[in-house]
Amino acid sequence: MSKQPDEEEFRIADFGLRISSNQGFDAGPQSTIALRAAHLTKCFRSGAADLVVLDDLGLEVSRGEMVAIVGESGAGKSTLLHLLGTLDTPTNGEVYLIEARISGWSLNEVAGVRNREIGFVWQFHYLLPEFSALENVTMPLRIRGIAQAAAERKGRELLGEVGLAERVHHRPGELSGGEQQRVALARALVAEPSLLLADEPTGNLDLKTGDMVFRLIEQLHRTHQLTSVIATHNLAFAERCDRVLRLENGRLWPAAAGPGAVGVSRVPG
Question: Which of 35, 47, 208, 221 could form a disulfide with 61 if both were Cys (CB 3.0 to 4.6 A apart)?
Answer without folding.
Answer: 35
